[in-house]
């Protein structure tokens, strides 16, 4: 990724900050498209379960660890599995929203860049949701996993996935939970200069363990969204700083501009009687009278 980060103590570049009202409307519009797109992909039950079988078989062929390995760790503690369910249900949207708000006020250039990355990533993910409906592993009998949200709570999904009007439960591929968490972490690592900034990567790591441990996503869901966001980062580079214009006092600018670089010694000699100016050198505007007097003596 071709990115540069600003010093932590630098004032935000307000010239790069887009109008607030326009951004609010834009983000609200993107969120609406996101929700409508997921709902439009709902209802493909048979295809979603058929694709789930293919994904499960592909993961076993690639020798990926079973999702049950992570879930078994969560099920050792009733409190831990509830914390995981709560994280899945409550962190996704608020964390992304707070990330964008902070960037907007403190790092406007990074805000525009991250907003574009999120928009491209979400659009590509919605296209895959339409083209490849996928039932999550908690619905796949061969996986033998527990629907932790329904058993332990809290759950963000309805009891009847095929008619769930609040969310599309067959939009597992790719995982926007993990994709947005990765975008938030990368954006904060790039936009900050703290020696601890790499700890932001814990957010996508914890999100990955949560979405797999709660049986809402496959490993491949996270792998595919990582590939998508990598393409987005490759195509959308963080813009550089705007050139800084330095305002020098007048008329010092005019006097300095009249003397070429390295000619200061010649200019001083030309004002001294008995000296000559170098060939092709023009004296500053204030020197002709002194030069005329010295030439007259010769």
UniProtKB/TrEMBL annotation:
<feature type="domain" description="Inositolphosphotransferase Aur1/Ipt1">
    <location>
        <begin position="55"/>
        <end position="234"/>
    </location>
</feature>
<feature type="transmembrane region" description="Helical">
    <location>
        <begin position="222"/>
        <end position="240"/>
    </location>
</feature>
<keyword id="KW-0472">Membrane</keyword>
<feature type="transmembrane region" description="Helical">
    <location>
        <begin position="87"/>
        <end position="105"/>
    </location>
</feature>
<feature type="transmembrane region" description="Helical">
    <location>
        <begin position="117"/>
        <end position="135"/>
    </location>
</feature>
<protein>
    <submittedName>
        <fullName>Phosphatase PAP2 family protein</fullName>
    </submittedName>
</protein>
<dbReference type="Pfam" id="PF14378">
    <property type="entry name" value="PAP2_3"/>
</dbReference>
<dbReference type="InterPro" id="IPR052185">
    <property type="entry name" value="IPC_Synthase-Related"/>
</dbReference>
<keyword id="KW-0812">Transmembrane</keyword>
<dbReference type="InterPro" id="IPR026841">
    <property type="entry name" value="Aur1/Ipt1"/>
</dbReference>
<feature type="transmembrane region" description="Helical">
    <location>
        <begin position="198"/>
        <end position="216"/>
    </location>
</feature>
<keyword id="KW-1133">Transmembrane helix</keyword>
<feature type="transmembrane region" description="Helical">
    <location>
        <begin position="170"/>
        <end position="191"/>
    </location>
</feature>
<feature type="transmembrane region" description="Helical">
    <location>
        <begin position="20"/>
        <end position="37"/>
    </location>
</feature>
């Amino acid at each position: 990724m071709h990115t540069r980060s600003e010093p932590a103590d630098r004032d935000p570049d307000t010239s790069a900050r887009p109008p607030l009202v326009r951004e609010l409307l834009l983000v609200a519009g993107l969120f609406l498209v996101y929700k409508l797109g997921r709902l439009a992909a709902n209802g493909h039950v048979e295809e979603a379960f058929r694709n789930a079988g293919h994904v499960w078989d592909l993961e076993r062929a690639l020798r990926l660890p079973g999702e049950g390995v992570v879930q078994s760790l969560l099920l050792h503690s009733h409190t831990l599995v509830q914390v995981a369910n709560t994280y899945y249900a409550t962190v996704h949207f608020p964390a992304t929203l707070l990330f964008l708000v902070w960037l907007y006020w403190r790092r406007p250039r990074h805000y525009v860049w991250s907003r574009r990355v999120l928009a491209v990533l979400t659009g590509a993910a919605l296209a895959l949701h339409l083209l490849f409906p996928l039932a999550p592993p908690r619905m796949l009998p061969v996986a033998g996993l527990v629907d932790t949200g329904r058993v332990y709570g809290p759950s963000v999904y309805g009891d009847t996935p095929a008619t769930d009007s609040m969310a599309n439960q067959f939009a597992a591929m790719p995982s926007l939970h993990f994709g947005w968490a990765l975008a938030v972490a990368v954006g904060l690592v790039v936009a900050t200069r703290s020696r601890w900034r790499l700890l932001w990567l814990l957010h996508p790591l914890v999100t990955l363990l949560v979405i797999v441990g709660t049986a809402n996503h496959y490993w491949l869901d996270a792998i595919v969204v990582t590939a998508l966001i990598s393409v987005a980062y490759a195509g959308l580079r963080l813009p550089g700083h705007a050139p800084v214009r330095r305002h020098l006092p007048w008329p010092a600018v005019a006097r300095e501009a009249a003397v070429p670089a390295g000619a200061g010694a010649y200019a001083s000699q030309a004002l001294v009687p008995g000296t000559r100016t170098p060939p092709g050198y023009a004296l500053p505007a204030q020197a002709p009278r002194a030069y005329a007097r010295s030439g007259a003596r010769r």
